[in-house]
Design a protein that fits this description.
The chain has helices spanning 2-7, 24-31, 41-49, 57-68, 73-100, 102-105, 113-119, 123-139, 145-161, 170-180, and strands at residues 15-18, 36-39. By secondary structure, it is mainly α. The protein has a two-stranded parallel ribbon.
């Protein structure tokens, strides 16, 4: 899949936010070696909360939020240590998961909070994918690949009409990326 992107003309990726799909970060880094791979924080929190009873979810979620909203990577690691002290006796898999994935969690700490909001989750693309799956599920089969492509085209046109607001803080993010990735940034 990543090789196909390159074959279709993608020259570089600065940051890739991924869910927990095994091998996907390595595939990205193999094809685009300069890419920073960031785990989706929303997915990580959801995965963590799978280990928690309904009664404790709010409290655990608040303690996890202290980690991913920390000002720096070092402060986040301190919050993670505090989390482990508090919860490891009853919920050890959570801290273990965060530690195991730490190198894929911390890339976004190199950015200010307004940019972190742009790169910390895959939810936007997942929303589009969910809408497309819903359309294909309701249809069942298609007479040809071309019919499916036309349906997706029309669906994406309708989906994009809902995007009335510009991506929040995108200008700040673009300015930061232009400076940080100057050598990789296409010059127009």
């Amino acid at each position: 899949m990543v090789t196909e992107l390159k074959n279709r003309g993608v020259q570089d990726i600065f940051i890739a936010c991924v869910d927990g799909l095994k091998g996907f970060p390595e595939a990205i880094e193999t094809v685009f070696p300069k890419t920073e791979v960031q785990l989706c924080i929303v997915h990580l929190v959801r995965h963590s909360l799978n280990y928690v009873s309904w009664k404790l979810r709010k409290q655990v979620a608040e303690d996890l939020k202290a980690i991913y909203t920390a000002a720096t990577g070092e402060a986040a690691e301190t919050r993670l240590t505090e989390f482990e002290r508090k919860w490891d006796a009853t919920h050890a898999p959570i801290g273990q998961s965060w530690r195991r994935n730490w190198t894929r969690i911390i890339p976004f700490f190199a950015y200010p909070p307004e940019i972190r909001k742009v790169i910390y989750t895959t939810n936007a693309i997942e929303s589009v994918n969910m809408s497309l799956r819903k359309i294909t599920k309701n249809r069942g089969s298609f007479p040809s690949d071309e019919a499916l492509i036309k349906l997706f085209y029309l669906a994406l046109r309708n989906i994009s009409k809902k995007w009335t607001m510009p991506l929040r803080d995108w200008k700040a993010a673009l300015n930061r990326f232009t400076i940080q990735y100057e050598e990789q940034m296409p010059q127009h």
